[in-house]
Amino acid sequence: MLVAERLEKIVRLVNEKGSLRVSELSEICKVTEETIRRDLDKLEQAGRLLRSHGGAVSIREQQPETPYFEREIAYAEEKRKIAQQAIQYIEPHDRIILDASTTAWYMASIMPDMPITVLTNSLKVAMELSSKEKIEVICTGGILAPRSLSFVGPRAEKFLDAYYVDKAFLSCKGLHLERGISESNELQALVKKKMLGISEKVYLLADHSKFGIQAFTVVAGLKQVHEIITDSLVDQAFIAQLKEKSVSVTITS
Fold it and tell me: What is the rounded distance in angstroms from the CA atom of residue 39 to the CA atom of residue 30?
């Protein structure tokens, strides 16, 4: 198989599957993993796909994120109450993650100036915390996603490999009893998977509109979440089913 043919085959396969790992492409194309990595680098530079940690992601399959200003005003009061509840779990000298959600930004806006370390991929969160002298802020690199003002992509994922934190505060697009936590955009999902993997405890910040939703890309199962923080408008039948699955839920007042 000629190099050009192999590159076209890789793009076609990644577009069909949404994403593929280097090992899978190596086996399909009958070449070494190192050759596949070089191919993926070329294809990313050409704008044909995006590299992810250990593989590649289809550009065609990426669903547009809701612009930040729209998310900021949607269910704002509920998100503020969730943020106020979440702040209570943070103690001095904690190392925490705040994702690029608007609820995490609300947390940053009311965060007391105390000695903690905050790791984030959110430009908005980093800017909000920059005036608080006792808080050390570490921001990932990566590709800036303009709609969410967040950093994504393989550089952001690789950056997170260097850290381990006490607590992660993450939101999502959907929360489903069977499918678990999901996101509308695969690049965001990959970063959140990495955040989950480097955290001792995971708190899911999910207003009532997220419940029962199955978004495009699965992030994690419910068992990977230590506690869900939601608002009082949530469906009580759904909460009962979560508790049957031994999922801890806190409802704000």
Answer: 13
SS3 15: helix
What is the enclosing helix (H) or strand (E) of 67? none
User: Percent of the chain at pLDDT above 70?
Assistant: 93
Where helices occur in 18-142 by DSSP H, the ranges are 22-29, 33-45, 68-73, 76-87, 102-110, 123-129
Sequence-separated (6 or more) residues with CB below 8 Å from residue 109: 83, 128
**DSSP code of residue 183:** E
Q: For residue 55, name the pLDDT band (cuts at 50, 70, 90).
A: confident
Cβ contacts of residue 229 below 8 Å, gap of 6+? 82, 85, 86, 203, 204, 205, 206, 249, 250, 252
162 or 214: whose pLDDT is higher? 162
Burial of 105 (0-12, 13-18, 19+ CB in 10 A): buried
What's the angle, vertex CA 159, arms to CA 145 and CA 230, rounded to 5?
60
* Element counts in the chain: helices (H) and strands (E): 10, 15
Confirm if 19 and 56 have CB atoms less than 8 A apart.
yes
| Whole-angstrom distance, CA of residue 252 vs CA of residue 221 | 23
Model's pTM, two decimal places? Answer: 0.73
